[in-house]
Specification:
- The complex is a heterodimer of chains A (129) and B (225).
- Chain A is α+β, with helices and mostly antiparallel strands.
- Chain A has one domain: N-terminal domain of TfIIb (Single Sheet).
- Chain A is built from 3 helices and 4 strands, in the order βαααβββ.
- Chain A has helices at residues 41-48, 53-62, 81-96, and strands at 26-34, 97-105, 112-116, 119-121.
- Chain A has a 4-stranded antiparallel beta sheet with strand order 1-2-3-4.
- The longest helix of chain A is centred in the last third of the chain and has 16 residues, at 81-96.
- The two termini of chain A are 23 Å apart.
- The mean pLDDT of chain A is 95.
- With 225 residues, chain B is α/β, with parallel strands linked by helices.
- Chain B is globular.
- Chain B has a 7-stranded mixed beta sheet, with helices on both faces.
- The mean pLDDT of chain B is 95.
- In chain B, helix 3 links the parallel strand 1 and strand 2.
- Chain B contains 7 helices and 7 strands, in the order H-H-E-H-E-H-E-E-H-H-E-H-E-E.
- Chain B has helices spanning 20-31, 33-39, 56-65, 78-92, 147-152, 160-172, 190-199; strands at residues 46-50, 70-75, 104-108, 122-125, 179-185, 202-212, 215-224.
- Chain B has a single domain (20-224), classed as Vaccinia Virus protein VP39 (Rossmann fold), CATH 3.40.50.
- The chains are: A alpha+beta (129), B alpha/beta (225).
- The A-B interface holds A 1-2, 4-5, 8-12, 17, 23, 37-40, 43, 46-47, 49-50, 95, 113, 117-124, 126, 129 and B 43-44, 46, 68, 70, 72, 76, 78, 81-82, 85, 96, 98-103, 105-110, 113-117, 119, 137-138.
């Protein structure tokens, strides 16, 4: 599971649908791995537009990374040296960082979901469907 | 004609093997290629295939239709979730020349239950459409030998699973550009489904229809009016 995907998944339990605490999930006891990806700064800038920066900050914090800028970097220019450094960092974090193993906890209902072999499992026991 | 992805080392005792319905979906997406590319030319779209199985359709979308997209493929079957990721990697090959990262992930879930609402721009679903007395229960054990049944059996009219999705379609698809391609067989009464969905405010169009063995398969496209 790529770090990027944490920006799009939430607790699937119906009662958590309208709760602001059901997203992002809280990531605990995670084992990470780096997987090399093509670096494409223009694509990355474009993609940033649709990401929820606060969720990125929270998940990065869960995984022990507090080095991100507090607000979403805007108008990044892949030609500028300073912007390049930020883009490289984001590339490494969002696209190359894989959560191989770990837990995802809903901050609303406390249900725990597991990630195994890089695949998150959001199936619910029948009584919660 | 766009190339069909290679699929290798998938355990077809547990994961749905690409068949006429899968290939119809590929042909449909090829036909719709221009529409899809122009609809999403200004954004990085979120693409979700429900029940990705072997990964052939998601891989086709990534390689041939929307290389610059974020993909979350879902399946309730853990073996399929593994197969999807492997098939994308197996076929990545020449995308390296495009310098596009592989943003395909697979997640084990029911339909799109764990994906944020109103986020999916392009949704593709080849559902379990075979009429049956009931939709099978999800096995507890990954080694269970009934995983494959879940890919096929769709309960009454073969529509139980598909209706669960259609009833929620408005909260699943992104508000303006969202589009869904869903496969039906004649016994699902696709004309009746289209009529009901139109009355709920959807544009429904039959993109492709084909006789495949003893089945007549079609794919409907849903967009907001």
């Amino acid at each position: 599971m790529k770090f990027l995907t944490t920006n799009f998944v939430k607790c699937p339990i119906k009662g958590c649908q309208s709760s602001l605490d059901a997203f992002p999930l809280k990531y605990e006891e995670c084992q990470l791995a780096q997987e090399e990806q093509e670096y494409n700064p223009e694509f990355l800038c474009h993609m940033l537009e649709r990401l929820d920066w606060n969720a990125i900050l929270k998940v990065a914090h869960d995984l022990g990374n507090d080095s991100l800028p507090p607000t979403k970097p805007e108008d990044l220019d892949p030609i500028m040296e300073d912007d390049q450094a930020i883009l490289k960092d984001l590339h490494t974090l969002l696209l190359e960082t894989q959560v191989v193993d770990g837990k995802m906890v809903c901050k609303n209902c406390q249900h725990i979901y597991y990630i195994k072999n890089s695949i998150p499992n959001f199936l619910l026991p029948p009584h919660l469907c | 004609m766009l190339p069909t992805p290679n699929v290798k080392n998938v355990d077809y005792e547990r994961v749905y093997e690409p068949a006429e319905d899968s290939f119809l979906l590929l042909d449909c997406l090829e036909e719709e290629c221009e529409f899809i590319q122009s609809r999403f030319k200004d954004i990085i779209p979120m693409v979700t295939e429900i029940g990705g199985g072997s990964g052939i359709v998601t891989t086709f979308l990534y390689k041939n239709i929307l290389p610059k997209a974020i993909f979350i493929a879902t399946d309730i079957n853990p073996h399929a979730c593994e197969a999807i990721v492997n098939t994308v990697k197996l076929n990545k090959g020449d995308n390296n020349t495009l310098k596009i990262p592989n943003l395909v992930d697979s997640c084990q879930m029911n339909l799109t239950s764990a994906i944020k609402s109103e986020t999916i721009d392009l949704l593709v679903f080849n559902p379990p459409y075979v009429p049956a007395t009931e939709v099978p229960d999800i096995p507890n054990d990954p080694e269970d030998d009934t995983w494959l049944d879940l890919a096929l059996l769709g309960g009454e009219d073969g529509m139980v699973t598909t209706w669960k999705l259609l009833d929620d379609l408005d909260t699943i698809l992104s508000p303006t550009k969202g589009v869904a391609y869903i496969l039906f067989c004649a016994r699902n009464n696709p004309d009746k489904v289209a009529e009901i969905m139109r009355s709920r405010g959807w544009n429904v169009e039959t993109v492709i229809l084909r006789k495949a063995g003893w089945e007549v398969l079609s794919i409907l496209k849903f967009t907001r009016v």
